Amino acid sequence: EAMLLSKYQKKYGLPERGAAKVVVKNRKNALKNSLACYRKPVYEEEILESRVVSWPLREMDVAPPCDGACAMVLASAKRAKQMTNNPVWIKGLGWASETYYLGERSLIAIDSLEKAAQKAYTMAGITNPLESLDVAEISDTFSYRELMAYEALGFCERGKSEDLIEEGMTETEGRLPVNPSGGALSGNPFFAAGLSRLAEAAHQVRNDAGNHQISGVRMALAHGSYGFCAQGNSVFIVGA
């Protein structure tokens, strides 16, 4: 992971304070989520002063592990309507994976996420994600991953992700709230982390996310990631 961020740093500069703001945002959001494992606010200077585990990653940039599980029910349209009066529909999905060998990858962007997102957007008929999406649940196993995901998902140009967090665009009251659940940075159940993002997106669409519900959600994005330096990525677009 540190190699991915080091390459990004060389190309665009290191958004260290922006990454710290991601941690602050997500941990603040977790205060309203009763299912979040870590419900304690943190502060920028606290994050920037935490020990380096592998430059440029600091201890508080890494999602803390926790126990957890997640389950979902998939059904045909006919069966879903029989099961509930408030189904959530999969509008689009995409999946892509990079080569395993890091030497064959650029590592200045999460290219497989960009490809996965474009597949999902095309299926869902989305041409401008900032206009079409109401909320996003993004894989944030590392704070910098959320910033780099902004770029791969088309929320901003490459190298401009820090601007979104600095301007408050991804806060719960911003133009596109990201991780109102608190994300993995508020508790990372490793093997359930990706499905948890999809479940949270579905809750937002169903308008039953509890105290961290975003008003008026009709379309949500969920993102899962795995492998060294974000090798594989999947994107789901869900809606009412």
Short summary:
This protein has 240 residues and is an alpha+beta fold. The protein contains 9 helices and 6 strands, in the order αααββαβααβαααββ.
Task: Describe the overall structure.
With 240 residues, the protein is an alpha+beta fold. It contains 9 helices and 6 strands, in the order αααββαβααβαααββ. The chain has helices at 2-12, 16-30, 44-48, 77-83, 111-124, 129-132, 143-152, 161-166, 193-206, and strands at 52-54, 57-58, 89-97, 135-137, 219-226, 232-239. The strands form 2 sheets. Strands 3-6-5-4 form a 4-stranded mixed β-sheet. Strands 1-2 form a two-stranded antiparallel ribbon. A hairpin with a 5-residue loop joins strand 5 (219-226) and strand 6 (232-239). Helix 2 packs across helix 7. The longest helix is centred in the first third of the chain and has 15 residues, at 16-30. The chain is globular. The chain starts with a helix and ends with a strand.
- Quick one: biggest sheet? 4 strands, mixed
Low-confidence stretches: none
Query: Approximately how much helix is present in the residues?
Result: 25-40%
Silhouette: globular
Q: Structural class, from secondary structure content?
A: alpha+beta
Evaluate the radius of gyration: 17 Å
- Hey, roughly how much beta strand do the residues contain? 5-15%
What is the number of helices? Answer: 9
- One letter per element, helices H and strands E, the order comes to HHHEEHEHHEHHHEE
